[in-house]
Amino acid sequence: MKYKKDEICYIIENNIKIVPVKILKYSAGFYTVKFLSKVGAIRLKEHRIFATEVEAKKALGIDMADIRYNPYNYM
């Protein structure tokens, strides 16, 4: 068990968004986590949970400095 109960961690949602979650419990290789930004909970394996937001960004593999937007994104 890597994460403790009531610890704040991060997950990657839909391969694009990093979301903060709270660890509720650990059972049979799965963590039950509660979303902090919305209502609900989910069970995930340990490799899907990250201790910091920086770790999650590295796993996502997107460097925000390399993203270029076109003018229509601002309308």
Distance between the termini: 47 Å
- Share of β-strand residues: 35-45%
Helix content: 10-25%
Mean pLDDT: 88
> Count of DSSP E strands?
5
Helices and strands, in order, run as EEEEEH
Poorly predicted runs are: none
Number of helices: 1
Profile the largest sheet.
Answer: 5 strands, antiparallel
Strand order of the largest sheet: 4-3-2-1-5
What structural class do helix, strand and pairing data support? mainly beta
Rg calc = 15 Å
Q: How would you sum up the global shape? A: elongated
Question: How is this fold's topology laid out?
Answer:
Blueprint: E1 8-13, E2 17-27, E3 30-35, E4 41-45, E5 49-50, H1 53-60
Antiparallel strand pairs: 1-2, 1-5, 2-3, 3-4
Can you describe this structure?
- This protein has 75 residues and is mainly beta.
- 11% of the residues lie in helices and 40% in strands.
- The chain contains one helix and five strands; from the N terminus they run E-E-E-E-E-H.
- The chain has one helix spanning 53-60, and strands spanning 8-13, 17-27, 30-35, 41-45, 49-50.
- It has a five-stranded antiparallel beta sheet with strand order 4-3-2-1-5, covered by helices on one side.
- A hairpin with a 5-residue loop joins strand 3 and strand 4 (41-45).
- The protein is elongated, with a radius of gyration of 15 Å.
- The N and C termini lie far apart (47 Å).
State the gist of this model:
This protein has one helix at 53-60; strands at residues 8-13, 17-27, 30-35, 41-45, 49-50. By secondary structure, the chain is mainly β. The chain has a five-stranded antiparallel sheet, covered by helices on one side.
